[in-house]
Amino acid sequence: xxxxxxxxxxxxxxFFADAEGRIDWAVQDEALNKDAMASGGNFDxxxxxxxxxxMFESYWPGVAEKIAKSPNPEREMPESFIAMxxxxxxxxxxxxxxxxxxxxxxxxxxxxxxxxxxxxxxxxMPGHDMIMFGSGTVATRLTExxxxxxxQLVVNPVFLGAGRPLLKGLPSRIGLELVGSKSYPLGxxxxxxxxxxxxxxxxSVGPH
Length: 208
Known about the structure:
By secondary structure, the protein is α/β, with parallel strands linked by helices. It has one domain (4-18, 40-182): Dihydrofolate Reductase, subunit A, CATH 3.40.430.10. It contains seven helices and ten strands. Strands 5-4-3-6-1-7-10-9 form an eight-stranded mixed beta sheet. A two-stranded antiparallel sheet has the order 2-8. A hairpin with a 5-residue loop joins strand 9 and strand 10 (189-195).
């Protein structure tokens, strides 16, 4: 069965976007970006909520071709950026939205509701794993349904003070098991968690 992996940058105080939805605070560390794209071959599908999809659709389509036509593409953009552009263009893209009409980006399908049976059907399809960027509302709902298999959080060395939390309104605590971590030269740390096996609650707190 295919897995769903959520990948997101978050601030050290727990936000994945500022109050206006901007992510310009995210530290662009080429070492981290190279590692992220090195694992790109594990995925062939990207999951989105409508707002995140529209943000990506407004920028990424055709970027790889434009860079390829440049006389010196490697000088204009980092290697990882070019790889990301190609990956997003080629990937199957699934948008969960009740309002989106006809998407313009190729290889895109729209699912009207987050139906557990339909998401499970996606996971049972042949192919590689699925990855999700941003899309806090969808991530929250899939977390509630226990349909996300791994959370990859890039903790950035910045406090926003206010903003949008990644997961909002979960009905209960969910324990996580740390399965990997790596720090990067510009101060970010990648944390990889699987759900359901961590210890939460008073028993996890040592003596004061």
